[in-house]
Predict the structure.
Amino acid sequence: MKAFLRHQDRIIRKLLLTFVAEDAFILAHVDLDRVLEKIHLSLRALPPAIRLAFHGMLLLFQYGIPPLAWKWRPFTWLPLEKRLACIEEYEQSVLPLKRLNFKILKVICLPALFSERELLIEIGYGRALQWRDS
């Protein structure tokens, strides 16, 4: 089971890097291990059926299953440009299931990434965080 979770963490990590196009500024202000932990905490709070669907969607995104995706190489092996194209293909697909797959991954992963305190301060939300913490 732990090997399966480590494999999923590698997929999520590569997905997060792709969501921000490996932007050095963003990556310098986030701790990806902490982001992964936030994602795991979010998943634990969801009903088991949605958690199972998330894990299935991660694997679908990684390997592709025809007719939803035709890939010769796993997502994590692709260079950044091809990973960005893959994300765009999912986001703009005519297949509702493919778009839904992408939306669920995005809705669970991106808030964890962009809720990193150091990043929020660097992009101008420092005063709002001071108010929130007081």
In short: DSSP finds seven helices and no strands in the chain.
